[in-house]
Each structure stands twice: as structure tokens, then as C-alpha cells.
Write a structure and sequence with these properties.
heterodimer, A: 224 residues, alpha/beta, B: 417 residues, alpha+beta, six-stranded mixed barrel, 13 helices
């Protein structure tokens, strides 16, 4: 079975009294260790499909399987546990916790979710810090880092638990061109180094070129 | 858990001004409670001490029905020598009773040979009375300010200050006391004023003193009767327990009709100050309730704001797999630490405040009592309970915002701007 299997998935939001169809009958599969991009204009359903794969939301119809788990059927607590063990997240606005240093942000999932020992944590954090190249900035708080550095910390945080799949919603939208390309190349090299599957969304043509598999969405439908 | 505590403290420090203001508000609340409790408690204890140690005693035993007609000082409700012996045996056998003293209460006429007025007299055995009311002599001003070891001897009288002033009587002055006994015959005796006594609160606080032997002569008692027996116990905190013990012992004695022979009362039933003491307790509780309201509202307000401002952050934590319990734990820790910081600050400043009040002694007058000095104090138990209440209320106030945070849908929280 593919790492991600989406079967006839639809998602409708209720905007006041108006139903908005964010996804319509989408089916696709994504293999392990692939570097995948969802592209399309704003409102095409990129974030919605990432939220469904990331167990942050549930489809109105259809089934979503991630790493062999039928994620539609998970309750809140099970979803949280599943996300903590199988998934990593990178957000458009970096979403680092402001009261934690770069090191502590990366360490956070290991302490709060995995609850592993100090020595194991230290090894894992050092490894990803080195891999993303922000060893020098490890003791800085998020407000002392540049946008590119913040996103590198976010990538490290997503990878530190060695997840099977990392989901990144517009990870380069808040970065300048150079930093954006650097972050995508970093994600790709991480995929190469750790074998992690990366799925990201973008509407930037230069960034989408970096993906190996591209799914194009328009008005909630998969067009390519 | 350490990580949650660390994050909680950093989150509090993140909004320094807000945390400081909230902590300050709670600290002032705690400080007010400590100072009020210290002052009011000190006032109450001092007044109770004055009443029990210099006048009423801690408990009194009478013939049944005496207290309900105490204002008329009836002489036909005295305890007979046999009854006195019975009670004496009970008191001697009780391990918590340290002293008891017989008294005869009477109403009489006082004359300085020029004017006459009525006087309420307390006839006592001065040695026993001093054991029961050790401060009784402190209220007395003797001739040439020389305090006598035995404050009243046969042939001497102690006159209340207000009467002495009104009738221009001084220590050393001769006076005549005329009294009517229970059979209706009138008798008079000459006395020398040994001292002038300052009043204390309550109807019995304006009584003069004579020796019990003189009272028996004046009232022509054939047998040594007693109006009341005043009692002092080892530990004032055990008053209610000793009272219950003695009461049950006295309940065994009944007259031919099956009615009770004796009655026993604590100072609370004998002094009107108990109403003031109760009022002080109510005010102290009210202060604590106000403090609880301050803690509850200020922490609830701060934590609601904190959750609202950090919706995206909460969404991120939930999205990356933090369990709802840990999110709740984080916010509860923030409320707990805010309460703890405020509680410690309030206690430290409160203790310093009590210390300062003891250095700059507060003097006051109450009723006819002047130059009373308050010595505010607060015990460690009260501080402990005060801190415990603050912490409990802090956590309670944080429950709703913390629960709300833990129940957030990550997809909605992440979308929040």
C-alpha cells in the first residue's frame, strides 16, 4: 500500500449558510520517500488536502489512509498521538514556540510527545541541527532568527522524531527567493538523507519545479 | 513535567507587565488579609484576654437560673457550702482546671459621708482570685502607686474609677457600704479605699472589690455561701472541650423536682464582647472572600486573554501531536505559578508589614479602656492556608481557559489570525 492513499475524498465547508466545496472527489496515492508538491491558485484546496492527510481535519466523504492507518476513524486523542508519531509539520509562518530557543523548539516533540530520555534527545537534536545547518543559532529565541533560519528550525523540528511523512503548507511563502530555494533544497536533501516523504503546497512556479511529483488542484478538483 | 513548568514560567515572563500587575493585585489582596487578620485577631485576643484575665475569668459556675437574673444580683441564688464542696471536688479532679475562685456578688450603697450612690461589688478571696484572673491587679491604682501583693484585705474596698471620680474618692479615703441581705435586713460596714480600679468592657467590668469575709459579715451569712465560682484552665484553646466536660459532670446533679442545680457558662455567654468578636470573625472572613474574588477574577481574566492571544500557538502544539492533557497542564501551570508568585510575595510583604506594625506600636482606646497597645501577629498555619487558598483559586480560575485551549480544533486554531 502507498504511504498516502486518498479515495474519492470530498470536503465541504459551511461558510455561514453557504456550503463551499473545498475538495471534490479527489483520489490519489503517494509512495514512500517521494518529494511531492500540491500546486494551484489560492482557494484550490491545497491546504485542505494537506489538513486531511495531516489528520487535522476530516473529509465530508471518502477515505484517507496514511501509513496504513484509516485516519478518518481516529478520534481527537488518537489523531494527536498519530500525528506525533508518524507526521511532521512545517508551517507557512514557521509557527515556532516563542518562549523556546531553537534547540528547545526542535527538542519539543521529543519531550512533550515522545517522552524520550535526555541523552537520546540530545543526540537526535544535534543530528538535525547539524543537518539543517543552524548549530550556531541553537540558543537563540525565534525573534532573534531570520525567516530562513526560522524555517530551518521548523524543518529540524519536523524531522527530529524521524516521521514517515512531513507536510509543509506553503513553506516558502514568507521567505525571500534565495531563502525559499534554500529551504526547498534543504527539504529535498533531508528526504535523501533520512528517506522521509515530503509533501508541500505552493503556488510559486520556481518552487514547484523542485518537486518530483506534482498534483495540480483547481476549484477543489485534481486536474493533473 | 519540568518542561511544562519551564514553558509556563517563560510564558508568564513573556507578558511581564501584565503578569506583574496581576501579581501585584493579588499580592495587595493577600497583604490586606494578613494585616487585617493580624490587627483584628490581635485586638480580639487582647480584649478577650482583658475580659477573662482581669475580670470575668474563662468560665463561671452558678446556681441554675442565676445568669438569667444576673442584672439584679439576687442573693437567694447562692451556692450553699455543700454545693460549693461538690463543685470544688469536680474542679479539683479535672486535669485541665488550674484554678478556681469563689465570689459573692452583691449590690450595695456606697457613701463617702457626703454623698451616697449604688455600687456593684465583687467579694473575692484575693489570693484565689489572682490565680483565676492574673491581671486583675493591673487595673488597680493603689495609694502612692504602691501595688499590694494581696490586692484587697478585710476592711478594704476597691472602687471603680467612674464612681471614684464622681464622688471624689481617692485611695485611702474612708467609705461606708450598706447592703441588704436575702432576708431583707440591712447592715453597714466601714471600709478604707485601697485602690481605684479601671473599668473593662461589660456589665461586670464596672464592679468594685471587697474581701469575701467582709461580704459574709455585711450580708450576715450564717453559712459561707458563694454566688459564683470562677474558673481558669491550662490551655485557653481547649475551652470548649473543658466546658463540655464540666457541663456533663454538673448535669448529674438534680433537685428533687428533677431540675438542674448548677449552670456553667464560658466567658462568651457572660460578656457582650462576644458579639464584637463574632463581628471581627465575619469581617475577617469577608476580607478573605474579597481576596478570593480578586484572585479569581484577575487570574481568570489574564488566562482568558492568554489563551485568546495564543490560539495559533496552541494550534501548532496540537498539530504536532501535543495531547490535550498537556495543553491543559501548561495553562494550569501558568495559573498555578502566577498564584504561587503572588502568594509568596503577599506572605513576605505581609510578614514584613506585621513586623513593622509591632515596631511602630499602635495605641488605641476602647470603651473606657485607654492606651491599649495592639501586637498584631499571624501564625504560620494561617499563612499556609492563605497560600493554599490562593493556589487553589488560581488553578480553579484557570480551569475554564485551560479546558478551552485543550479542546481547540487544530485546523481552526492554525487558521486564526
Amino acid at each position: 500500500m502507498a504511504l498516502v492513499q486518498i479515495e474519492n475524498v470530498s470536503k465541504t465547508y459551511q461558510m455561514g449558510e453557504v456550503p463551499v466545496k473545498a475538495l471534490q472527489d479527489v483520489s490519489l496515492s503517494i509512495e514512500e520517500a517521494s518529494f511531492v508538491s500540491f500546486v494551484g491558485p489560492s482557494g484550490s484546496g491545497k491546504t485542505t488536502i494537506l489538513n486531511l492527510i495531516g489528520c487535522l481535519d476530516k473529509p465530508t466523504a471518502g477515505d484517507v489512509f496514511v501509513a496504513g492507518e484509516h485516519v478518518n476513524l481516529l478520534n481527537r486523542r488518537q489523531s494527536a498521538a498519530f500525528r506525533g508519531s508518524v507526521l511532521g509539520f512545517i508551517f507557512q509562518s514557521f509557527n515556532l514556540l516563542p518562549v523556546l530557543t531553537a534547540y528547545e523548539n526542535i527538542e519539543y516533540p521529543l519531550v512533550m510527545i515522545r517522552n524520550i530520555s535526555q541523552s537520546m534527545r540530545s543526540k537526535a537534536v544535534q543530528k538535525v541541527l547539524k543537518a539543517v545547518g543552524i548549530m550556531e543559532q541553537k540558543d537563540k529565541f525565534p525573534d532573534q532568527l531570520s525567516g530562513g533560519q526560522k524555517q530551518r528550525v521548523a524543518v529540524a523540528r519536523a524531522l527530529v522524531t524521524q516521521p514517515k511523512l512531513v507536510l509543509a503548507d506553503e513553506p516558502t511563502a514568507n521567505l525571500d527567493k534565495k531563502s525559499a530555494v534554500n529551504v526547498i533544497q534543504l527539504m529535498r536533501s533531508m528526504r535523501d538523507e533520512f528517506g522521509t516523504t515530503f509533501i508541500f503546497s505552493t503556488h510559486d512556479p520556481k518552487i514547484m519545479k523542485e518537486a518530483e511529483v506534482i498534483f495540480t488542484l483547481e476549484d477543489g478538483m485534481l486536474v493533473n | 513535567m519540568n518542561k511544562i513548568f519551564k514553558m509556563a514560567i517563560r510564558n508568564l515572563m513573556r507578558y511581564k507587565r501584565r503578569t506583574l500587575l496581576t501579581a501585584l493585585l493579588i499580592t495587595v489582596g493577600i497583604l490586606t488579609v494578613i494585616l487585617f487578620s493580624g490587627l483584628a485577631g490581635s485586638f480580639k485576643e487582647m480584649m478577650i484576654g482583658q475580659i477573662t484575665d482581669s475580670n470575668l475569668a474563662q468560665m463561671q459556675i452558678h446556681k441554675k437560673g442565676y445568669v438569667s437574673s444576673i442584672d439584679s444580683m439576687p442573693l437567694n441564688l447562692n451556692l450553699s457550702p455543700k454545693e460549693y464542696k461538690t463543685i470544688e471536688k469536680i474542679l479539683q479532679d479535672h486535669p485541665d482546671v488550674v484554678a478556681y475562685a469563689p465570689r459573692i456578688k452583691l449590690s450595695a450603697m456606697l457613701s463617702n459621708y457626703a454623698e451616697t450612690t449604688n455600687i456593684r461589688l465583687n467579694a473575692v478571696d484575693p489570693e484565689k482570685e489572682t490565680m483565676v484572673c492574673p491581671d486583675v491587679g493591673n487595673r488597680m491604682v493603689f495609694k502612692d502607686n504602691v501595688r499590694e501583693k494581696i490586692f484587697v484585705k478585710p476592711g478594704e474596698i476597691i472602687i471603680p474609677k467612674n464612681l471614684a471620680t464622681g464622688m471624689k474618692i481617692k485611695a485611702g479615703s474612708p467609705v461606708v457600704i450598706v447592703a441588704q441581705n436575702k432576708d431583707g435586713s440591712i447592715n453597714g460596714l466601714n471600709f478604707t479605699v485601697a485602690a481605684i480600679i479601671e473599668s473593662v468592657l461589660g456589665p461586670q467590668g464596672k464592679e468594685g472589690y471587697i474581701h469575701i469575709k467582709d461580704a459574709r459579715t455585711l450580708l450576715r451569712m450564717e453559712k459561707p455561701e458563694v454566688t459564683e465560682i470562677a474558673i481558669r484552665i491550662k490551655n485557653f484553646n481547649k475551652l470548649n472541650a473543658v466546658y463540655a466536660d464540666l457541663k456533663s459532670s454538673l448535669l448529674k446533679f438534680k433537685n428533687k423536682k428533677g431540675g438542674l442545680i448548677f449552670e456553667i457558662h464560658t466567658w462568651e455567654k457572660l460578656s457582650p464582647f462576644v458579639n464584637i468578636a463574632n463581628m471581627i470573625d465575619i469581617m475577617t472572613i469577608s476580607m478573605k472572600l474579597i481576596m478570593i474574588a480578586i484572585v479569581l477574577i484577575s487570574i481568570l481574566n489574564v488566562m482568558i486573554m492568554s489563551v485568546y492571544e495564543r490560539i495559533r500557538e496552541i494550534g501548532t502544539m496540537i498539530a504536532i501531536g501535543t495531547s490535550p492533557n498537556k495543553i491543559m497542564g501548561l495553562f494550569l501551570s501558568e495559573g498555578f505559578f502566577l498564584g504561587l508568585i503572588s502568594g509568596i510575595a503577599g506572605n513576605v510583604i505581609g510578614i514584613a508589614g506585621i513586623y513593622l506594625l509591632n515596631i511602630f506600636k499602635i495605641r488605641f482606646s476602647f470603651g473606657r479602656m485607654d492606651n491599649l497597645i495592639l501586637s498584631p501577629a499571624i501564625n504560620i498555619n494561617e499563612l499556609f492556608w492563605l497560600t493554599a487558598i490562593v493556589l487553589l483559586v488560581s488553578v480553579f480560575a484557570t480551569l475554564q481557559p485551560a479546558y478551552k485551549a485543550s479542546k481547540m480544533e487544530p485546523v481552526d486554531a492554525l487558521r486564526h489570525v
